[in-house]
Protein: DUF1574 domain-containing protein
Organism: Aquirufa beregesia
Amino acid sequence: MKNFILKIVLFATPFLGILVFVNYFGDAARLFANDYEEKMAKIIGTGKYVTNFGNYDERLCQLELIRLKSVRPHTVIIGSSRTMLFNSRDFPENTLFNNSVSGASMEDIVSIYQIYKEYKKLPEKIIIGIDPWTFNDLSDQNRWMSIASYYDRFNHVESHESNELMKYKELFSFSYFQSSLKLMPKFLKGNLDPIPTTNSHNISATKLTDGGLVYDQLFRESSAKEIDNRIDEYMAGDIFSIENFKSISSKNWSNFNKLISELEQKRIEVEFIFIPYAPKVFERVKNYPMVLKTEVMVNEFAQLHKIKVLGSFNPNKLGMDKSYFYDGMHCKEEGLKKIIESKNTNK
């Protein structure tokens, strides 16, 4: 029996070693590259754009960008990937920084605001992206946990436990291995690091000095058929983060009210922005009453507080057909311009 167990251990050890090696050095989600986000932020701090970056912790990157920022921006955008393409050309009248993160939740919004506050770099104006899942407690958006301490301090509650030990479980994860294995060729060639560039449009995605994003070349140059296929694929499964949206979250609505109240007290101007779905997707989304209710409630709130609103979840209100979209829920740059032109005046 002992010999059998010994043989199993000897047989399994090399495979376990390979698993850990690939997960650590391929590191699909940048769990173990502790300085990766700082490298990106430092490049942007030198006035260069940054490209060749892969999966990384977008929240920690925002923390580094704010921490290293030498000039306080006039206007800040906090939203999800749906607002990530906005840049200074869209708001030329003032200095702007885009702090949007993928799948942003209400926790992300207040946490990023809190980072600005603690580093004493609050802007004069904050544009808040309102997503269909912003007030959904069951959105499954938990990436904000990497900056949870700022969320806790905003709410004056005891800090969440550290997730530091949790990430080491991924060293033994086969699913993480599958993702990390794809990055091993780059690791072996030594080209996993973010690269500074003066070009805003590159083969891979590029982050601009104002925090805005430019998609990779293949995505930017997608054909109409490829975009149609993406929209169909998006609709083939559950609609991102709204399938279990049964009621407006009292916790998120409370945080939203608390945040706006604090911004008003600090005399920081506020705007809300809604990014539409592609028309075909919105026809299905109309069957999700809480999404529609979200837009109504936020618009009513904005009117009461004399806050400007841009856009809508409904592309028809903005005169946007499928040609304005990259996929089911992300607008092209031309679409963002249409949204800016839709500005209401609740003041």
DSSP finds 14 helices and nine strands in the chain. The first strand starts at residue 49 and ends at 51. Residues 246 and 290 are 7 Å apart (CA to CA).
